[in-house]
């Protein structure tokens, strides 16, 4: 595996959870030429601005981690924003990267691209074989489009644009908004607030029976750089690149009930947990088949409870940003 640390690398979305983790990992590996832009400096949904940025900033590698993300509530409430923003950002970056001769790009997708009732664990070839989970279908369709954009530029122009499909991620720089966050930050915050107030109980959404897989974002960053730097056979125009779409996860899942009890333990909440079955559960199970990536030489390092401690400590250190 070739690791070109002298290459100029653009990390789109470096202020988000995944992008910031990728930047940390690249720096730890000794990369010196890392390009980042804030939202104020570059609006990734502005096509002309993105084209101008790539035209004036020569880069060798692009990590496309920028996206509008959220949990079940956010996806259900803002479907138009989720499909429009993500389609626009990925289209602008991928096309502009191609136009300016960027040969290598890594697009970060999501496990929600797979059908709701996909055979478990979900293999890469399950894509487009069934109906998506309705609660996040617009977001999933945008991510599927990103995969197909990468594949299409590879086939037509011989680019080396790869896609990684992470399972549910958590860790430092996560979104802890009380309504628009994913399950782990939502639970960490809810149990923390309950502990601080001395509440006797916490109400959790759904039945607690769905199975979910979780990956710490530092592991995701390590996997992303690993996949970007894997050697690949010489591409031929009009052929499918071998590494255009690959799952990233632990290959291990747990019930939402087990997760919730572990979060309560990590936070130190000693009250009762009650379940509200009127709230949506989402897909019954989402476990990634990660055998392809494991066979290529990468596997996760951070166990769930250890990762939860890390995420909770980050929240405690930054909770002034999440008050209200």
**Largest beta-sheet characterization:** 6 strands, parallel
Distance between the termini: 47 Å
Nearest-integer average pLDDT? 91
Gross morphology: globular
Structural class: alpha/beta
Strand order of the largest sheet: 2-1-3-4-5-10
By CATH reckoning, the class of the domain at 9-171 and 213-252 and 286-302 would read Alpha Beta
Estimate what percentage of residues fall within beta strands. Answer: 5-15%
Element-level helix/strand string? EHEHEHHEHEEHEEEHEEHEEHH
CATH superfamily of the domain at 9-171 and 213-252 and 286-302: NAD(P)-binding Rossmann-like Domain
Rg (C-alpha, Å):
19 Å
Helix content: 40-55%
Provide the CATH architecture of the domain at 9-171 and 213-252 and 286-302. Answer: 3-Layer(aba) Sandwich
Instruction: Quote the CATH topology of the domain at 9-171 and 213-252 and 286-302.
Output: Rossmann fold
- Give the number of DSSP strands: 13
Question: Any low-confidence stretches, pLDDT <50, length ≥5?
Answer: none
Number of helix segments?
A: 10
Secondary structure: elements and pairs:
Elements lengths: L8 E4 L4 H12 L5 E2 L11 H10 L4 E4 L7 H6 L1 H21 L4 E5 L28 H21 L2 E7 L1 E3 L12 H15 L3 E5 L5 E2 L1 E3 H12 L17 E3 L5 E2 H12 L4 E5 L8 E2 L4 H6 L7 H15 L6
Parallel strand pairs: 1-2, 1-3, 3-4, 4-5, 5-10, 6-9, 7-12, 8-13
Antiparallel strand pairs: 8-11
Family: Belongs to the NAD(P)-dependent epimerase/dehydratase family. Fucose synthase subfamily.
Protein name: GDP-L-fucose synthase
Enzyme class: oxidoreductase
